[in-house]
TrEMBL record:
The keyword Nucleus does not apply. Its EC number is 2.7.13.3. One of its GO terms (cellular component) is plasma membrane. This is histidine kinase. The chain holds residues 113 to 256 of 256 of the full protein. It catalyses: ATP + protein L-histidine = ADP + protein N-phospho-L-histidine. It is an enzyme of class 2 (transferase). It comes from Pseudothermotoga thermarum DSM 5069. Keywords: Kinase, Phosphoprotein, Transferase, Two-component regulatory system. GO terms for molecular function: phosphoprotein phosphatase activity; phosphorelay sensor kinase activity. Residues 1-143 form the Histidine kinase domain. The keyword Glycoprotein does not apply. GO terms for biological process: cellular response to phosphate starvation.
């Protein structure tokens, strides 16, 4: 199915309203374009990225979701991931050393990786500890 990204993201984000409000976070959304992808599978991957951004953000933070150069970009200014941990975060059960105060099982990114790979979608995660984390999803790589 062809998905109108702006409506899809805005509708999808409503499921996080309670958690967003609890931490007084702000979503900044500027997405455009259409994609052809299995919406349910794509949501599972996105859900893991967004819930991480919420969980690892400090109160009163901002989460920016935007499209740029055919990438869907999810950016937070949360605790970030230490450089030594970054290459392991998509491994099952791996949690970075600075994630211990937050609950989780270390599975979300492993699931996202598995699903996105299934659809041939390239993505990357950049992070700087104490500054934040950004996920880049290459919308041009989606094959269906
Ligand atoms: P869950 O299985 O509930 O998702 P989790 O969030 O710990 O648990 P993943 O989503 O797989 O597991 O993420 C793996 C690790 O990567 C996290 O434990 C955390 O250390 C780090 N991480 C992922 N996303 C972020 C983010 N946005 N900000 C800071 N650290 C992150
Ligand atoms: Mg997670």
């Amino acid at each position: 199915a062809e998905i109108e990204l702006d409506l899809f993201i805005k509708t999808f984000l409503s499921e996080f309203e309670q958690r967003r409000k609890e931490k007084n976070l702000r979503f900044e959304i500027s997405v455009a374009g259409n994609i052809k992808v299995d919406p349910e599978a794509f949501k599972i991957a996105l859900r893991n990225f967004i819930s991480n951004s919420i969980k690892y953000s400090k109160n009163d933070g901002v989460i920016i979701i935007r499209t740029e150069n055919n990438f869907l970009i999810i950016e937070d200014r949360g605790v970030g991931i230490p450089e030594k941990d970054l290459k392991y975060v998509t491994s099952r059960f791996y949690r970075a050393s600075n994630a211990r105060n937050y609950s989780g099982s270390g599975l979300g990114l492993a699931i996202a990786k598995h699903l996105l790979r299934k659809f041939g979608i390239d993505w990357a995660i950049h992070s700087k500890v104490n500054l934040g984390t950004t996920v880049f999803i290459d919308l041009g790589s989606i094959k269906i």
